[in-house]
Amino acid sequence: MIDVAGDARQLSRRAVIERLKQVGTLDMLVVGGGATGLGVALDAVTRGLSVALVERGDFAKGTSSRATKLVHGGVRYLAQGNIALVKEALRERKAVLANAPHLAQPLPFLVPAFGLKGRLWDRPFYGTGLKMYDMLAGKAGLGSTEFLGVQQTAALMPGLRTQDLIGAVKYWDGQFDDARFAVSLARTAASFGALVLNHCAVEALLHRDGKVSGATLVDAETDARLTVRARCVVNATGVWVDDLRRMDTRGDSHMVSPSQGIHLVVDREFLPGDHALLVPKTDDGRVMFAVPWLGKVLLGTTDTPRDAIETEPTPLTDEVDFILGEAAKYLARRPTASDVRSIWGGVRPLVRPPEAKSGDTKRISREHLVIVDPSGLVSVTGGKWTTYRAMAEAVVERCIQAGLITSSQPSQTRELMLAGAPARAAHRISDPPGVHLYGSDGAVLDALPGGQRELGMGLTEAMVRFAVRFEAARGVEDVLARRARILFLDARMAEALADDVAAIVAEELGHAVPDLAAFKQLARRYHTLPG
Fold it and tell me: Which domains does the chain have, with CATH numbers?
């Protein structure tokens, strides 16, 4: 195991870079700091392997910070008859909720039924399916599915339209803070000795005797280059998995068929209760959610095939119209464009089977795929946040089976508490942001300057300092997008807070923050609807 001087939970950039310069050949180099890559690094290092992970942007900057914030077995997969995927996801849901109870918690859902247009069958039809959901969960279940009458439904979901309502089905899944969960994974891996570094890109793969043997890295802050050698290189770059494979002379790599999903965020007044809304089948066959999260409500999502892969996908007018239109059918108060506090999207790395038709993303697998190329490069993509841990375990096992690394230890992560995890949660994830999201790190936070100075939306000066010192934040966007989630909750507020946050980050880093102007431009994009 690698030893990093000082408190590894601090993710000290200087210490990690110096150690990368000195270390010999690592067991594993993981490229990609999203859910899968961080999971792989944690699984490997807790088996006693020497591990480094690099991410060209920030942890979870891409798809992994743009989920619907659900930890779920997959009701849609149940409807598709994919029982194996549902059972695995339900098992992993239990692990995610147990590993970080301050960041992932159970959440009740309502599936309403209305009496118009022949929809009287909705409640028994979906209720039967959700009872099967309970059965598949077994001991990992979070609560029993219930059939509710009109009054019960209206009481539990005050923001629901009641005209023609005949009742609802209540079932349980989970929700989480995806980006903060990712940062917690990074900190936990570092505490076991992994060399974890964000804002550091792979410039080229290294080869020896026709096999991948490491990579040349570029520090985004200094443009300095360093060489890291490893027995095994894991390509966990998500939707960009084909790009890294092409560095390995695979010009024909087409593992991913990208699909764009967007979300709109509105005030909690639209859905003031503590239950999420699920519409299992909209008029065009999609699934739609309205989810209480961090004091706001998320509306989404879409499933739009895209050829271009962007870190900041551009929401389409049709996507916005679809979500607002569907929400208006179910919410008592119709949300309009002026009610949207933030709009953001992500690109899903859907696995493309050889027979898949171009653009047909709804039929492409949500399961993951691991490939070991003749060069020894290991690539993984697909899957979803809920099953990140099982995916990571499968990747490490595949690396061992391929003879790239050696470890006699089984995976250690199923019952591993992540950095900051308290014995139990004191607040709900649906509550507005606050100290509760830091779990057992609250005492560390209290010792930092500025704990009583609130900047806005629950963010304090001390939280910004904590983000830099302990969570590897290197700029305004890192803080306001992924350590505090304000960009995703209220983009105008994020823009207003940018100057104060930049000043604190600059003081912590000892130099000016280069991304202030760029962040303000990004925030405007998040509060500007297309069309």
Answer: 8-63+180-255+356-401 (3.50.50.60), 106-176+258-351 (3.30.9.10), 435-526 (1.10.8)
